[in-house]
Design a protein that fits this description.
Layout: E1 3-4, E2 10-11, H1 27-39, H2 46-59, E3 63-67, H3 70-80, E4 87-91, H4 97-105, E5 109-112, H5 124-134, E6 135-138, E7 141-144, E8 150-158, H6 167-177, E9 180-184, E10 192-193, E11 196-197, E12 204-208, E13 221-225, H7 228-238, H8 246-249, H9 271-302, E14 308-309, E15 317-318, E16 324-328, H10 335-344, H11 360-366, H12 374-382, E17 383-386, H13 394-410
Parallel strand pairs: 4-5, 4-8, 8-9, 9-12
Antiparallel strand pairs: 1-2, 3-13, 6-7, 7-8, 10-11, 10-15, 12-13, 14-16, 16-17
The structure holds pyridoxal-5'-phosphate.
Residues 69-71, 95-96, 98-99, 158, 184, 186-187, 208, 210, 221 line the site of pyridoxal-5'-phosphate.
């Protein structure tokens, strides 16, 4: 419908706001939530166990431990690897703060290496350069000598936007320099690498079920591993370091008996969250297929433009398309002007991510400076994530495509 204004200019009625992401929670999930509420067992219990079993089956991981968030899973993974104040952990600066915060929570030193300009994932060559420049070989492994001597114990590989890191190259470095590989698969539920589920390629994988992610439990996460002793330690630490979990504690004969073997955390999932998770997991492939199909529409629409850099797909990876990040390479329109122009057209967007080495805490604590990771910095200057979620309609995608063309072709003036 078109409205005629007094100046007889044609003005379209404002389209409703299109957010950057909306979760898809269906009637199955809602029925299951009610069933949990009526069952009287709200915290970790039978549904959490079912969700863990289903997640093991889906990913092919030997072990799965459901947690309150991906942040919790990452923290547990590092603690289960016994990472502490004598250690260093390397990761990408182009990630959400949680990835590096958990290194700090272990008392360990944060090292960053720059990213690949095409995939935005850790660049294995840059990882090796950081190790060669900042670490020395010792009998215990490679030791970072900046300020204090700390042994490089782990690399956290972030599968940015849902595309697997170059895992063969990273695994070769892990072998050569004797560190563990932890996967931050927050974006990558449903993603694969050479046919294998991400999150099962290193010592531990950590998934997020936050509402914007590929599937949701409200808040929640999952730690996967092939190592049963690592998983057992993570589970113990997720429940206060108490030797028997709550479910067993209230259902065995000696209900009161327990021991505390370590000062653990309160990081378990609840059955309310798992009720969502069980049904969301059944729909995950369908969600990822829809994301991939919308991303293909964007690729087709934007692929020929020289003022927009679309995501690169590594042929080894099956991309879960959690995000659709583009770089604004226009001479006339800056990234921030582009975001404002989208907003004026009632279209949401987001920026992933502010490089962590430019944030105040990481600058002040570890002495990082602008210029340290130029590829991440250059990507950040121009990057923006367009709306992408499974419930997005073809019409909504077309609205985004038209708006992008209008903004870049016409400049930013209204
Ligand atoms: C969302 C996110 C996390 C944290 O997930 P939570 O479940 O919210 O704790 C970690 N890493 C990355 C890359 C993320 O995007």
């Amino acid at each position: 419908m078109l409205l005629t204004t007094t100046s007889s200019r044609l003005v379209k009625p404002a389209a409703p706001f299109l957010p950057f992401s909306i979760p898809s929670v269906g009637s199955e999930e809602i029925r299951e939530l009610i069933a949990v509420a009526e069952s009287g067992w709200l915290t970790a219990g039978p549904r959490t166990q079912r969700f863990e079993e289903a997640f093991r089956e889906y990913t092919g991981a030997a072990e799965a431990v459901a947690t309150s968030s991906c942040t919790a899973a990452l923290h547990l993974a590092l603690r289960a690897l016994h990472i502490g104040p004598d250690d260093a952990v390397l990761t990408s600066p182009f990630t959400f703060s949680a990835t590096a915060n958990v290194i700090v929570h272990c008392g360990a030193q944060v090292l960053f290496a720059d990213i690949c300009p095409k995939t935005y994932n850790l660049d294995p060559g840059a990882v090796e350069r950081v190790i060669r420049e900042q670490c020395r070989p010792s009998r215990q492994g490679w030791v970072a000598t900046l300020r204090a001597r700390r042994r490089l114990r782990a690399v956290i590989a972030v599968h940015y936007a849902g595309q697997s890191c170059a895992m063969e190259e990273l695994a070769a470095l892990a072998e050569r320099y004797q560190f563990s590989l932890v996967e931050d698969a927050a974006h990558a539920a449903g993603a694969r690498y050479r046919g294998r589920s991400v999150g099962t390629l290193g010592q531990a994988g950590c998934f997020s079920f936050y509402p914007t992610k590929n599937m949701t439990t409200g808040e929640g996460g999952m730690l996967t591993s092939h190592d049963s002793s690592l998983a057992a330690r993570a589970r113990l630490l997720s429940q206060h370091g108490i030797t028997r979990d709550g479910w067993q504690r209230y259902s065995t004969e000696q209900a009161w008996e327990y021991d505390v073997v370590e000062a653990g955390f309160k990081y378990n999932m609840t059955d309310l969250a798992a009720a969502l998770g069980v049904h969301q997991l059944l729909r995950l492939n369908e969600f990822v297929d829809r994301r991939r199909s919308l991303a293909s529409s964007y690729d087709r629409a934007f692929g020929g433009r020289s003022d927009l850099i679309i995501p690169y797909e590594d042929p080894r990876a099956f991309h879960s398309r959690h995000l659709y990040p583009v770089q604004i390479a226009s001479k006339r329109v800056s990234r921030d002007q582009f975001i404002q122009a989208l907003r004026r057209r009632n279209i949401g967007s987001s920026v992933h991510f502010v490089p962590l080495h430019l944030t105040r805490f990481y600058r002040e604590r570890f002495g990082f400076r602008r210029g340290d990771f130029p590829v991440a910095e250059q990507a950040f200057e121009r990057i923006v994530s367009l709306p992408l979620f499974p419930a997005m309609s073809d019409d909504e995608a077309a609205r985004v495509i038209d708006a992008v063309a209008e903004i870049l072709d016409g400049g930013v003036s209204p």
